[in-house]
Amino acid sequence: MKRISIIILTFFAIIASSEAQEKQDTITLEAVSIQEQRSSQMNGVNRQRMDSLDMQLIKPLSLSATLASHSPVFIKSYGQGALSTSSFRGAGASHTQVLWNGVNINSPTLGQTDFSLIPMNIMDQLTLLKGGNSIFSTSGGLGGAIHLDNKANWNDTLTIYVNQKISSLKGSETSVENNFITGKLLINTRLFHIQSENEYTYKNNTKGKPPYPEETQKNAAYRQSGLMENIHYKIDRNNTLSARIWAQSNFRELPRPLTVKDMKRNEEQSNEFVRTQLSWENQKGKDHIFIRTAWFDESYTYKNPVAGLQTTNKSRLFSSHAAYKYYISSDATIETGLNSDLYNVRSSGYEDNFTRNHLSAFTSFMYRPWTRLQTLWVVRAEKINNKKINILPSASLKFSLLKPSRLIWMANFSRNYHYPTMNDKYWNPGGNPGLEAEYGNSYETGLQYKKQNKQKNLLLEASATYYYSSIHNWILWQPDSIASYWTPSNLKKVHSQGIETGLTITKKYKNSMFRLNTQYTYTSTKNAEKLYPGDASVGKQLIYVPKHSGNVMAFVNYKQWDLIYKYNYTGKRYTTSDNSRYMPDFMLHDLEIGKTWELNKAKLSTSIRVDNILNTDYQSVAWYPMPGRVFHLKLGLKWKRN
Fold it and tell me: Residue 615: is it exposed, middle or buried by C-beta count within 10 angstroms (0-12/13-18/19+)?
């Protein structure tokens, strides 16, 4: 920790010595326009929002690949196209809340999201609220919250995008997008189909000694098909109606872990969902009213013919939300709102159907007492079914140490809680209806630096954050002492602390531009209480939480050519609670080169991407091998009516 602190202090000493000018949110470049939208309330929280260039670079990726290469979130993946979950600031997968245009899409049964099922080319904006800052938008994000949003583009009256990609894993991806505007009506349609046999060779480290024999991945194919429809209608200059539909069908075969005998299992999983939203927004003068309703219908099916198993889960969500924001002045804004989420779940693993009514109310107040200090106060009240009301406060401040707002000191305190999932309480056998909610306090402080030099066409952004949280009633599944099945209990108290650093440099030249983005994360998440006498897990790092992780992305544009290099480092992860066994660290290198041709009203783009160019043999989860070197060829066409 001491060495890390010295590095961070040196880092800020170097950048603070450079000349700076007033910060801006947009740099217009000859090849690329980089934009970041402002939000008066959200500016008060510690967030990471991808700007337009970042979004352009991550469009070809899934959300799991995006988070692994562009954020401090650790992704725990069972393989290419397989289940991918998150560990945000050392917390569990269910402690990351994922919201689509403000509505939580985490599974009510598992309480988590499979990030491999979300292609980024159907999203327009990605924002991460870190740790307790997630209270600004939702409860339950003990690790943080991820916002996926769709934005209306009223600038292009008619634009068509077509992209085709093939990979060396016997895979292909086709996507089409159409943005159409006529008068007050905007219709944006996106379609995609992804499929792969997912065949690759790997080294089986369960057989003999190095060099391990090579085998071929079997029973790992997957496919995804989906539709995203966004419709916006401007009633007048102050009122807008919006409707959204996200429908998707997913199928995947489930490969065996290396420790299971090689036999024909035909294990598979399928998932279908339809998610709809309807909203009305009114902005007039100092008043802003927003009302939204949403309806989700989802189903999951798991089959294992060898074991004679088939389980089905079906869930429905009806959500309603109303919020009112009043701009008191340029230095003060107040917002209040109500939200209701009604879940209905049917599962072959439950003895009965269950419903959950999640009610919440919030009030946030942003106040800038003087130019260099901004504060944000949030109070959220939560109630689930007949449980008591939980009051969750949060306070954030940002203070400019250097004029004009180049170097900012920020701090946050928040209280959060996470209610047990449906499976935690009702799964049969093993569910525990008496489980209590997990809760904890979070603290963080850090520095944010941003400078823009107009004469040198340079934008530099840097940040360093220290955080600490204490989580009580940590839910742990473990074998029952009498029965032969696993059951959850409120056993653990977990302390989590760490450091997140980031540096982004964007430089424009005459016919080119360069961006370098680096992130490093140190995470210490430890069990603080004994589960039983002689418990060896006390003071030890939780399993599958790497202490050290980081990534680098370098982007170079020269005229019509693009070059992208990515580096990802994941430190060792312990696989036993006493830290006696672990998985080794690994480093991945990806490289992509592409070119764009101007064809009258159209643009034709081609690119070649190589993932894991050094053919590194690694596993993210024990006994589930990841692919080695993978090649991708992409062809894209964009047509725009002038």
Answer: exposed
pLDDT tier at 41, thresholds 50, 70, 90: low
Give the integer Cα–Cα distance in Å for 378 and 373: 17
In sequence order, what DSSP letters do the residues of 29-85 get, joined into one string? -SS-EEE----TTGGGS-EEE--HHHHHHHTTSBHHHHHHHHSSPEEEESSTTS-EE
Residue 129: name the closest of 42, 37, 35, 25 by CA.
42
Closest CA to 151 of 127, 173, 135, 130: 127
Q: What is the pLDDT of residues 321-376, one digit of tens each?
A: 999 999 999 999 999 999 999 999 999 989 899 999 999 999 999 999 998 999 99
Amino acid at 376: L
Give residues with Cβ within 8 angstroms of 35, minimum separation 6.
25, 26, 51, 52
pLDDT in tens, 226-263: 999 999 999 999 999 999 999 999 999 999 899 887 66
Three-state DSSP class for residue 613: coil
DSSP one-letter string for 337-385: EEEEEEEEEEETTSSS-EEEEEEEEEEEEEEEEETTEEEEEEEEEEEET
- CA 424 to mean position of chain CA atoms: 23
CA proximity to 353, closest of 386, 325, 315: 315
pLDDT 10s digits, 523-562: 999 999 888 888 899 999 999 999 999 999 999 999 999 9
